[in-house]
Design a protein that fits this description.
It contains no helices and 19 strands. With 281 residues, the protein is mainly β.
Length: 281
């Protein structure tokens, strides 16, 4: 079965350089062979004094452990980050996963929307979950970015990585997970702190946002494991980028999600993808 792994750079790092923070961690449970990973961020704390540059990587993967790493570069000052990792067992063949980079620095014409084709088609249109694992913004302009999956069919989907207004995006990468829509013991959704229109950057949100989710008809045999990663940010660049997402009150019936900022950060909106699951059959 899959597993959720969290690497907190402030608590778990064993090797910490100015631009390279990582730790070799054992999985919550061993796999029979090296797993596949989809990974993103559930906490970011980065200075606004330089460009926002951060990426999530996983290397040296074995069936028991891997090297979880958060990297910044050049003069970016990364104070802290939580890397959220969704680990798929070799037997979880019903899941497809991948990632796509929109690199405007290398190609200024890089499109905001691309077609992703699954390695193996699904029988019916699957559920698709998307989130960021690489960010590269210019300083001095608000940091605005959203990723989404549209036009989903059995063969693939359209992956969107978009910004708006005067944001200067150099590059962003989105990771994605797709699974059959009739998979049992799994619930996924996307939530956002914003007022509904994501592209509204003049309404600061409360520093603490939260809401309950009810799983409805999805049946869990025990309290589920929960994966959380950002799919949207809209934050003013006049202060540091500080945002964290987490869940609590997790039960078989539902959970409460939280998206918080702190100190003088001005948060216009932020959104996360959430995946809750038990064993898959």
């Amino acid at each position: 079965m899959p597993a959720v792994i969290r690497f907190d750079t402030e608590k778990d790092s064993t090797i910490r350089r100015m631009t390279d923070i990582h730790a070799i961690q054992e999985y919550p449970r061993p796999f029979v062979a090296p797993p596949r990973f989809a990974h993103g961020f559930s906490r970011l704390d980065i200075s606004n004094g330089a460009n926002i540059r951060v990426k999530s990587t996983v290397s040296d993967v074995t069936k028991n452990k891997a090297d979880f790493q958060v990297i910044s570069w050049d003069d970016t000052q990364l104070f802290g980050c939580i890397q959220s990792v969704f680990a798929l067992a070799p037997g979880n063949l019903q899941f497809s996963t991948g990632e796509h980079m929109r690199n405007l620095k290398a190609d200024p014409e890089s499109p905001s929307s691309v077609r992703i084709n699954f390695d193996r088609p699904f029988v019916t249109p699957p559920k698709v979950v998307v989130f960021f694992n690489h960010l590269d913004f210019e300083k001095g302009k608000a940091w605005r970015l959203i990723t989404s999956a549209t036009a989903i069919d059995a063969m693939g989907f359209t992956l969107n990585i978009e910004t708006w207004y005067d944001t200067v995006l150099h590059a962003a990468q989105a990771s994605w997970i797709a699974y059959p829509e009739d998979t049992t013991h799994i619930y996924s959704t996307s939530v956002n702190t914003g007022p509904g229109e994501v592209h509204v950057s003049n309404r600061p949100q409360a520093r603490q946002s939260n809401s309950e989710i009810v799983f409805g008809d999805v049946g869990f045999c025990r309290d589920p494991d929960v994966f959380v990663a950002f799919n949207t940010i809209d934050i003013d660049s006049d202060a540091n980028l500080r945002v964290v997402a987490y869940v609590d009150n997790v039960s078989r019936e539902g959970l409460t999600w939280h998206i918080d900022s702190w100190d003088d950060t001005v948060l216009y909106s932020a959104g996360v993808s959430i995946v809750a699951f038990n064993e898959f059959h």
